[in-house]
Design brief:
Elements: H1 2-13, H2 19-32, H3 36-43, H4 50-61, H5 63-84, H6 89-116, H7 123-138, H8 140-148, H9 161-166, H10 171-174, H11 185-263
Helix pairs in contact: 1-2, 2-3, 4-6, 4-7, 5-6, 5-7, 6-7, 7-8
């Protein structure tokens, strides 16, 4: 089991274009060894999307940035629990800012990683990466998947994530006029929740459209790569057959020449 786990971990660390071939090869080897359960498990592994693959590589190559992100997420969850108890509004706003800064740092690391890999760091891809690492900071299960570096697709933040990004800093921190009365905390929270829910609905619609377009483009690219590979294989086979035919003709010409020599 430990050996299989290491093999699977190796798959998710490979360049994206090598994943499918290496996965199939591993599944065939396991099947040949009659480890049918492991072969089925490996064969069912899904190829990561570009965004998920990038996040997986960040977990391997930019561990310090990822650890800082997860630490900021833990601090944010703690501050959120305190705020729900009626205290720590300033701490929540500060923790949210720290988490957003950590997300930005990891997204920038992702941009560098994509450039090094020769992959286009489009805004759409970076948005998906940002969404995924934000979700990892807020959700323990997603955070564990990030640490393992085995994500197969991007993840959208859930729970209190959208609310946190919309929570303003406390009125006292924003204005020097301390004589002005503070608005009730419950009113601020309800307003922030309404704004966050509206922003979330809009963001989800944009994400759905972008995800659909990206999936179609990736499928088309994968199809073209497959067609190119099959065309290359057909060309190689045709060349082999042509070479064999040429050798056959040359051999027959030699036979004919030899027969003519004997008949004289």
């Amino acid at each position: 089991m430990a050996r299989l786990d290491a093999e699977i971990d190796r798959l998710y660390g490979l360049p994206l274009d090598e994943f499918t071939g290496a996965r199939n090869e591993l599944a065939k080897r396991l099947a040949k060894d009659r480890d049918t359960d492991a072969a089925a498990e490996v064969g069912a592994l899904k190829k990561p999307t570009l965004a998920a693959w990038t996040v997986n590589q960040l977990a391997r190559q930019r561990r310090a940035d990822v650890d800082q992100l997860l630490a900021a997420g833990r601090a944010l969850r703690k501050a959120h629990r305190a705020a729900l108890g009626g205290s720590g509004g300033d701490a929540l706003a500060e923790a949210a800012r720290d988490e957003r800064a950590a997300v930005s740092a990891v997204v920038e690391a992702a941009r560098e990683l994509l450039d090094d890999a020769g992959r286009p760091a489009t805004q759409q891809t970076l948005d998906k990466i940002g969404s995924t690492i934000h979700a990892a900071a807020l959700d323990l299960e997603v955070g564990k998947a990030l640490e393992a570096g085995r994500l197969t697709e991007e993840v959208e933040p859930a729970g209190f994530g959208p609310l946190l990004t919309a929570v303003p800093s406390s009125p006292a921190a924003e204005t020097p006029r301390r004589s002005e009365p503070k608005k009730p905390r419950a009113e601020d929270t309800r307003r922030a929740l309404r704004e966050a829910q509206r922003a979330l609905r809009e963001a989800k619609e944009v994400e759905r459209r972008r995800s659909r377009d990206a999936n179609e483009a990736e499928r088309e690219a994968e199809k073209k790569r497959g067609e190119a590979k099959r065309a290359a294989e057909r060309a190689a086979a045709a060349r082999t057959e042509a070479d064999e035919a040429h050798e056959r003709v040359a051999a027959l010409e030699r036979d004919v020449a030899a027969a003519k020599g004997k008949s004289r």
